């Protein structure tokens, strides 16, 4: 009998000792692979928050830049309604430049196009008479389409003119001894019942579930491909299956390694997204401190269990694809397809209301993860839905593992190159 | 130690190995020589339990290759055609991994790793990643991996293919030392001179069948050839004339 072939170390049953050996070897190999480090660490920690925050940072910068400059409106015929002109000037929101006598629409459009003014306003020659007769006055507004400064000036002009119109109407009604309230039979008062503590969860609920399902695939992708097709390509698989270890042990060790890498990537991404959305984003838009998240211990446990089972399921599927593939490239094509496949339910979910998803949806892997994660973060998760999700994911993970094992046990699959 | 009886393998209706019967005793080296596609690798894979025979049976170290594959693997050291090492792992890490899979651990495993690396002249490369190894170094490390658990049987597929003279010599010395240690060694080779130097007996396999089995002298005498190369060509010509034209 060769020395100690059956033995595991003290305290470790031989099967677990060998699963651990395969798991450790795969992890060691993976963390020395730059592609895995890129997908597992660099993208989740640096690039994804960067991409998420870049939009808001740029929007805020643009707003600040626009707010620093008062837009100029070139007004022709302003002398017809001096009251309106004075009222707008008094607000300080919009500067008024009177169109020089003898100038015309072409010159005004030229100045608008050159960015010297942001808006051209034309009042008709009979504006004063029409206003006195209490008839509508048509105001022609010319904007430079596509220019954000001009668009903002037009919006400002519209808002100011509406406010001024209300004052004029109120004056006319009062002159007739009528209450301005006659024109406002309803006043809407909106109250949001969402506690402030749930706002953080609502924001995370929109992003985190999607990231979890995508990164469960992307995070462990290279480890999975390397563990099957990669081993075939570099001919190390044959040596591995010649060891006195059952295929179940080898597949279990490999699946565990893929799941470990994917789980680390998912957790890093959830962490970096939370910091970005709850701490950095409020600071970018001028708020202080953290946006609060209300997450109960049972909710957190449910979230972790859902993530873990989903990662286990996806890792086993990827490993099955990888073992089945003839080459690294073939496996990469399958896994990329899988990534798009998990994105589809996320698109579908956009059309499902936040509450009231049918129970059958919690039986569909990916869809159930998206739903449960969103509900847990938003504080609306129910126990039956969570249990259905966990049961469905456990069954799917078991099935996927059996498929990976079947592929690994097939000599036709192992030796197809 | 190795007993093959009527071993057959059929791929997609095409027989690749046909009714092989032979034995390798402890302390004996049997060389399996034949042209490309003769069925050498398939035979070795069936004995190493990675392929299941279609018909026939074999025992290795007393264990049945179909019914007791794990016990067979525990008693055999295999060197496949390609060393298939983990390039991002060092020499010691590669050996430690296979040691763990064979149930070894701790100080005895570390001693065994040092002993094997010393024996094969790889002591200096112990902590070097194998992706930086030369072909000869990789082959030596694969041999060390094959015997990490000190198996009584060795199966080596083209162990000197593509190696330089010095590395080939190291492999040949390894096979001789294994024979002296009482191991049964079955290896396949294209190099007849090498087979002549190291084998106690030779089996010439053509088109999935053994057409000659005996000591190098017996194999030559049977066809009246002066050298093993001439004998090989003669045996191939008898069995498969088309193949003989290609190999001679």
First-to-last CA distance of chain A: 35 Å
Can you list the strand order of the major beta sheet of chain A?
A: 2-1-3-4
Quaternary state reads heterodimer
Rg measurement of chain B, Å = 18 Å
Q: What is the mean predicted local confidence, pLDDT of chain B?
A: 91
Measured as a percent range, the helix fraction of chain A is 55-70%
Radius of gyration of chain A: 32 Å
Descriptors:
heterodimer, A: about 425 residues, mainly alpha, 4-stranded mixed sheet, elongated, B: about 250 residues, alpha/beta, disordered C terminus
Give your account of this protein's structure.
The complex is a heterodimer of chains A (417) and B (248). Chain A contains 15 helices and 4 strands. In chain A, α2 (34-67) runs parallel beside α10 (247-284), α7 runs antiparallel to α10 (247-284) and α8 packs parallel to α11 (297-324). Chain A has 417 residues and is mainly α. A 4-stranded mixed β-sheet of chain A has the order 2-1-3-4, with helices on both faces. Helix content of chain A is 66%, strand content 4%. The two termini of chain A are 35 Å apart. The model of chain A is unreliable at 1-8 (pLDDT under 50). Chain B is α/β, with parallel strands linked by helices. Chain B has a single domain (2-247), classed as 3-Layer(aba) Sandwich (Rossmann fold), CATH 3.40.50.300. In chain B, 41% of the residues lie in helices and 25% in strands. Chain B is built from 10 helices and 10 strands. Chain B has helices at 40-47, 69-74, 91-101, 106-119, 135-146, 165-180, 192-198, 216-223, 228-239, 241-247; strands at 2-11, 14-24, 29-33, 55-60, 63-64, 76-79, 153-157, 184-189, 201-206, 209-214. In chain B, the strands form 2 sheets. Chain B has a 6-stranded mixed β-sheet with strand order 6-7-8-3-9-10, sandwiched between helices. In chain B, strands 2-1-4-5 form a 4-stranded antiparallel β-sheet. In chain B, β4 (55-60) and β5 (63-64) form a beta hairpin. In chain B, α5 runs parallel beside α6 (165-180), α8 crosses α9 (228-239) and α9 packs antiparallel against α10 (241-247). The radius of gyration of chain B is 18 Å and the shape is globular. Chain B starts with a strand and ends with a helix. In chain B, 50% of the residues are buried.
